[in-house]
Design a protein that fits this description.
- The model has no long low-confidence stretch (mean pLDDT 86).
- The chain is built from 5 helices and 3 strands; from the N terminus they run H-H-E-H-H-E-E-H.
- It starts with 6 loop residues before the first helix and ends with a helix.
- It has a 3-stranded antiparallel sheet.
- It has 110 residues and is an alpha+beta fold.
- The radius of gyration is 18 Å and the shape is globular.
- The protein has a single domain, classed as Arc Repressor Mutant, subunit A (Orthogonal Bundle), CATH 1.10.10.10.
Length: 110
């Protein structure tokens, strides 16, 4: 059985015609777990193992999701790791996020 067309489904093809939104994430609260994770992600990739070694606990995925809500768009991939029975997530920031922070630093906003 075919799904009926709705107004929303007809317009979805035209979304590619809209201009891309500007990248403007919000900064997390100072000294929060989100701020610490953002700082770590600006230095490089981050895993739950790294987060535990820093003494920050088991909630890295929740912190990363909060950064996503703030507009940072963190990315993750699952990779196998020696000593772990299942693949673990490796989190990183997209290039546009790193460039954004560099611009903020040059302007003295951070």
């Amino acid at each position: 059985m075919k799904r009926p067309l709705t107004r929303q489904s007809k317009g979805a093809a035209q979304l590619s015609l809209l201009p891309e939104l500007a990248f403007c994430p919000r900064l997390p609260k100072p000294n929060s777990c989100e701020a610490l994770a953002l700082s770590a992600l600006l230095e490089g990739d981050l895993t739950q193992v790294d987060w535990l070694r820093r003494g920050k606990g088991w909630r890295l995925a929740a912190v990363i999701k909060e950064l996503d809500y703030l507009g940072w768009g963190p990315e993750s991939i699952l990779l196998p790791r020696n000593g772990w029975p299942r693949p673990i997530a490796v989190y990183s920031l997209p290039i546009k996020a790193k460039r954004f922070v560099k611009r903020l630093i040059r302007r003295g906003a951070v």
